[in-house]
Amino acid sequence: MNSESxxxxxxxxxxxxxxxxxxxxxxxxxxxxxxxxxKPGMIATAILVYYLLNNGxxxxxxxxxxxxxxFVILTALHIPFAVNNYWALQTTLNMVQFVPFILSVxxxxxxxxxxxxxxxxxxxxxxxxxxxxxxxxxxxxxxIFFDENDVAIYVNIWLPFCFFLFMYENEFKRKLFYxxxxxxxxxxxVVSFSRGxxxxxxxxxxxxWIFSTKKMLSLMLIFLVGLFVYYYSGxxxxxxxxxxxxxxxxTAQARLQSWTSGWYMFLDNPLGVGGNNFQWRxxxxxxxxxxxxxxxRVAHSLWFTLIPELGVFGxxxxxxxxxxxxxxxxxxxxxxxxxxxxxxxxxxxxxxxIAALAGFFASxxxxxxxxxxxxxxxxxxxxxxxxxxxxxxSQDLKGSLAKV
Length: 404
Hints:
The longest helix is centred in the C-terminal third of the chain and has 31 residues, at 303-333. By secondary structure, the protein is mostly helical. It has helices at 8-27, 40-55, 63-77, 85-108, 112-134, 148-168, 172-192, 195-211, 215-241, 250-268, 278-285, 303-333, 341-364, 374-395. It contains 14 helices and no strands. The chain starts with 7 loop residues before the first helix and ends in a 9-residue tail after the last helix.
């Protein structure tokens, strides 16, 4: 049995709840409206679990899902050995909550039509969060959009999709949609004044230009974005971003010292100290630069959260997951388009995946976002995209991509 053979009525409802879950997790209505007492996130997750248990969780097999399971299990194994068992447990539960969505996407998003709907919905949510942040001093509605940095790294993931789908589309209305979303996202990053977000934006722009087949047009658009940034924010923004490479600047030096402490923590605990336990062990390894005890300080880096918290095995699992994602993205990039619009769409997504990964990790190097959902959800979309192409190839029917 495979995902293609599932009852269409079931998968239609299941797919609706995938979008519902995204709306709750990213749209955050519970942080704006008085409905948090209803636990909408728990409800959305429970519905996806129901569909998984009743319709074949075994259908979600892939190299990436295997690594994700290993990662979750590893966080759980650290619980009894962590100094703060509660936070290690919460980290595991947080990761477990992502799994039903990830598996649901890999099973239920099994056609080009559904893939397009998911991508467009994710772009709509990005545009919404961007616009929301413009009216709230760069802040998002809460949780994973707690501050400007959180908004900026999230937006950097979806900007490449706006660009490459803008280039892919022929219909004016759809071009307009992607263009407006892209403008909203760039504006949100500028308003955020996030230096990590700025680094991510540079990485996204670089990969967009590298992979674009219309380099002059891409360069012109990047130049226009640069002009917009300059005229919208002026010297203040440029001066703030210029401190990114200044290692003597206060926050930059604090990050470097934190990373040094994280490295010492890893050397002393090569198997890891447990999820979200960096801040609980920091005082044992902090450098003299801080001058006082800094208990509760996070690593301010995805990598220096991963290395000391989950140790050698965590690093191996995470990098294997990244390698599988990159391989799938470059495989889809290498497809022969042959004037097939469906394959062209998959190719555009492949370019988006590569630029999105670059933007995410460029920003994540300076932010503690290891346990945020963004990378894990992006992985689910990469898996689904590769599986859709595999189904197409095995059936050898061009029209099969558009069914359902």
